[in-house]
């Protein structure tokens, strides 16, 4: 347990040092590639769902209105 706690403190210390020294690697990456990744991810999602909705042949039972018929009421049998 001591080794785990020591490693955890070491990681938090490294993170604090990076914040203190203004690490801008993530900011530059997001500024450079952020919009491209968002657009490509959204287009991939739309493409996959378009394929699923149109080409797979899945029957989508969206509404049961008019399709479900109630059974006839059965009176309780008297003894």
UniProtKB/TrEMBL annotation:
GO terms for biological process: mitochondrial electron transport, cytochrome c to oxygen. It is found in: Mitochondrion inner membrane. Gene3D superfamilies: Cytochrome C Oxidase, chain K. The chain crosses the membrane at residues 33-52. The keyword Disulfide bond does not apply. Keywords: Membrane, Mitochondrion, Mitochondrion inner membrane, Transit peptide, Transmembrane, Transmembrane helix. It comes from the Eukaryota. The keyword Zinc-finger does not apply. Belongs to the cytochrome c oxidase VIIb family. This is Cytochrome c oxidase subunit 7B, mitochondrial. It comes from Champsocephalus gunnari (Mackerel icefish).
């Amino acid at each position: 347990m001591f080794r785990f706690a020591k490693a955890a403190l070491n990681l938090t210390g490294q993170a604090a040092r990076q914040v203190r020294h203004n690490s801008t690697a993530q900011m530059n990456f997001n500024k450079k590639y952020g919009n491209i990744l968002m657009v490509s991810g959204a287009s991939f999602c739309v493409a996959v769902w378009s394929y699923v909705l149109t080409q797979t042949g899945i029957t989508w039972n969206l509404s049961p209105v008019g399709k479900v018929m109630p059974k006839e009421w059965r009176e309780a049998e008297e003894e």
